[in-house]
């Protein structure tokens, strides 16, 4: 048996033709997933380092190559589900920090970003335009005050 | 056993492809696909039109033509051929489908946005034709019935502009690809962009880094 690195779509084709086994990534086993879950629960400030596409990759394995996984598949599935849920809870808590300028979301995966994208983008867009309106108003008030000062000094001269 | 032989042949093909002298070429081809994918995602996520990837698209189109020719050549003799050519053709076809999908979506996404100077020649021609037919359609349908001063399609008076402009304040998700030495300032806040981190920031603040490729929209 040879080991070779190919894109995952190619591995899927070969697997469907029974021409290969797919080597699972080092995080897709009970032991590591449990550790990751533990990290999510204990460290509420950050997210554990999972690949950008971890949800997609695990789904591909569950559906196309369950026999290549070393642990029982229903246990793996439920752990992935747990991880997904705890991370979503943390994400939603983190969203209370949203402001008009920026939000930092390290180690979030693409799926997780897409899940919050519509909501977060529209909220931040509104906050941005509101804060702009406020600074514009302030600017106008300042300008008015300045021009009043100018007026006053003109009167002073007279 | 048949199956095993076929599989070994495929592996050998791969190894041949990845031999040192050809490794660079393979790598370059992979990078092109990667670049296309990123260009497509960035284009979809950015509120403005980005630069057209002229040479990249040229390279990909010529490679697509090569692969299509290869499939056509080999599928004629399919009946007499061994089983593994079938699989090889299937793999090539799958990849073609994948690349074509992204390419089409990339081009179509670009045509939904409009800033003329970044369009390619073909895109400009397409847009002008599209716009001309659209005006003709509107005219024959209802515009000619309206009073003359209401017929314009690019009216900006009356507090509301008919010309859509990109909203540069729109927040975008981005991943930092290269460390950015200078902090960016938004209002009174300073934000440090560190490699590998993910942020949600208004587009105007990071626009130049999207153009330079130091950050990728996601």
TrEMBL record, chain A:
Residues 132-158 are annotated as: Disordered. It is found in: Nucleus. Residues 27-130 form the GINS subunit domain. Residues 2-23 form the DNA replication complex GINS protein PSF2 N-terminal domain. Residues 135-152 have a biased composition (Acidic residues). Keywords: DNA replication, Nucleus. GO terms for biological process: DNA replication; double-strand break repair via break-induced replication. One of its GO terms (cellular component) is GINS complex. The keyword Nucleus applies. SUPFAM superfamilies: GINS helical bundle-like. Pfam families: PSF2_N, Sld5. The keyword ATP-binding does not apply. It comes from the Eukaryota. Component of the GINS complex. PANTHER family: DNA REPLICATION COMPLEX GINS PROTEIN PSF2. Belongs to the GINS2/PSF2 family. This is DNA replication complex GINS protein PSF2.
UniProtKB/TrEMBL annotation, chain B:
Residues 166-218 form the DNA replication complex GINS protein SLD5 C-terminal domain. GO terms for biological process: DNA-templated DNA replication; double-strand break repair via break-induced replication. One of its GO terms (cellular component) is GINS complex. Its main location: nucleus. The keyword Translocase does not apply. This is DNA replication complex GINS protein SLD5. The keyword Nucleus applies. Belongs to the GINS4/SLD5 family. The gene is SLD5. Keywords: DNA replication, Nucleus. InterPro entries: GINS_bundle-like_dom_sf, GINS_Sld5, SLD5_C, Sld5_GINS_A. Pfam families: SLD5_C. It is found in: Nucleus. The GINS complex plays an essential role in the initiation of DNA replication.
